[in-house]
Amino acid sequence: MDLRWTSDELAFRQEAREWLEANVPAEPLPSGDTAEGFALHLQWEKKLFADRWSVVSWPKQFGGREASIWKWLIFEEEYYRAGAPQRVTQNGIFLLAPTIFEFGTPEQQERILPRMAAGEDMWAQGWSEPGAGSDLAAISSRGVRDDANGGWRLSGQKTWTTRGAFSTHLFGLFRTDPEASRHRGLTYFLVPLDAPGVTVRGFDRLDGDEGFAEVFFDDVFVPDSDVLGGVNQGWSVAMATTGSERGLTLRSPGRFLHSSHQLVELAKSRPGQGRLNDRVVQSVIDARAYELFTLQQVTSIVAGRAVGAESSLNKLFWSELDIRLHETAMELLGEQAELDGPWSKGFLFSLAGPIYAGTNEIQRNIVAERVLGLPRK
Ligand SMILES: Cc1cc2nc3c(=O)[nH]c(=O)nc-3n(C[C@H](O)[C@H](O)[C@H](O)COP(=O)(O)OP(=O)(O)OC[C@H]3O[C@@H](n4cnc5c(N)ncnc54)[C@H](O)[C@@H]3O)c2cc1C
């Protein structure tokens, strides 16, 4: 692992820093998980796109800069350092897009990626159902073949769909072969949420944001051209998406480096709380450790090795680090904690970290069985 940046990478960092310093809104935007905040975040996304900062690592034809994965990490670090708005496009650009690059047809790539990069189409993840969360292969929403029209008819219900109420499209798993074993009869569909038969019902989160939706499908027609990665191949396509969700792309180290630096500033502003210094220092060390772990992983990826089940290690580490870091902030703030919007909101959201992207209990099972090779029972 070579930890030195090249002059080209340093120049890229400088360019990104200057652009962000000149363009990041002076006042933080309202939460992107509210209708008002989402609309403002979309304007920000369009600004990023206009100057080709929305998807730096993508090919130029889709709106990117063909930046290396190293430069992408640099951009992420600068993005968080600048305090730039949350990416409300994240489920599209960080989860679906890598899967489309891997499994999408050229026609799908041309049709979907530029609009996603531009913030024109907003994608939601439609996997969880009332009866299927950790056990994703238990999904019962189904797709029935419609030969006459060259496609599929979707029925069923998805839930916990992040920003579903504000999204235009959904990528989801549906059971297309009820006779096949649980993991084999699934297909990955790309569905416009304005298709006839789709009902989206938004609902609030515990922190007051309107971030979730239930999505109902009542005989919704989807053409063959909106199957991603082959009929009944949905499980392996979905596993590629989870690799992105748990691993690198959803939670880059820049996020935690920035939070740990903010924690140091908070601690400096509260000199009477010296007993918490060890925990503050530990957060800085942990954020740096996560960065180094990520750099090691990127070194492997660049050398052609797939990350696979090891992305569960990232997920465990970043989600638990996020909670520790916010708990320390809450203690530093003491009785003022509830009055502090960003830290208390961040704390509440950190508690969801061990649940979304697959619960941490499930990640520990994966690490035990597929990384450490322990027996299943
Ligand atoms: C903030 C947030 C955003 C989300 N966004 C989305 C989204 O956009 N799209 C989407 O599809 N879903 C989304 N989810 C849903 C999320 O994927 C599920 O909540 C998660 O997979 C757990 O499923 P469940 O809630 O049904 O819990 P269950 O699966 O019912 O689990 C309940 C408890 O049992 C434990 N458990 C279950 N099975 C095992 C096992 N085999 N071994 C050990 N322990 C086990 C779990 O760890 C958990 O503690 C989101 C969730 C949150 C909190």
Describe the secondary-structure layout:
Layout (H helix, E strand, L loop, with lengths): L6 H17 L11 H16 L18 H13 L8 H14 L2 H12 L5 E4 L15 E5 L4 E8 L10 E7 L10 E7 L5 E6 L8 E12 L10 H13 L6 H16 L8 H26 L8 H23 L7 H10 L9 H12 L6
Parallel strand pairs: 1-4
Antiparallel strand pairs: 2-3, 3-7, 4-5, 6-7
Helix pairs in contact: 1-3, 3-7, 4-5, 4-6, 6-9, 7-8, 7-9, 8-9, 9-10, 9-11
Bound molecules: flavin-adenine dinucleotide.
Protein model, in words:
- There is one protein chain.
- By secondary structure, the protein is an alpha+beta fold.
- It folds into three domains: 7-87, no CATH class; 123-233, Butyryl-CoA Dehydrogenase, subunit A, domain 2 (Beta Barrel); 247-371, Butyryl-CoA Dehydrogenase, subunit A, domain 3, CATH 1.20.140.10.
- It is built from eleven helices and seven strands.
- The chain has helices at residues 7-23, 35-50, 69-81, 90-103, 106-117, 234-246, 253-268, 277-302, 311-333, 341-350, 360-371; strands spanning 123-126, 142-146, 151-158, 169-175, 186-192, 198-203, 212-223.
- A four-stranded antiparallel sheet has the order 2-3-7-6, with no helix packed on it.
- A hairpin with an 8-residue loop joins β6 and β7.
- The mean pLDDT is 94.
- Flavin-adenine dinucleotide binds next to β1 and α11.
- Flavin-adenine dinucleotide (FAD) is lined by residues 125-128, 133-134, 160-162, 352, 355-356, 358-359, 361-362, 365.
Topology pattern, helix = H, strand = E? HHHHHEEEEEEEHHHHHH
On the 0 to 100 scale, the average pLDDT is: 94
* Beta-strand share of residues: 5-15%
Ions, cofactors, ligands: which are bound? flavin-adenine dinucleotide
Strand count: 7
CATH superfamily of the largest domain: Butyryl-CoA Dehydrogenase, subunit A, domain 3
**Backbone structural class:** alpha+beta
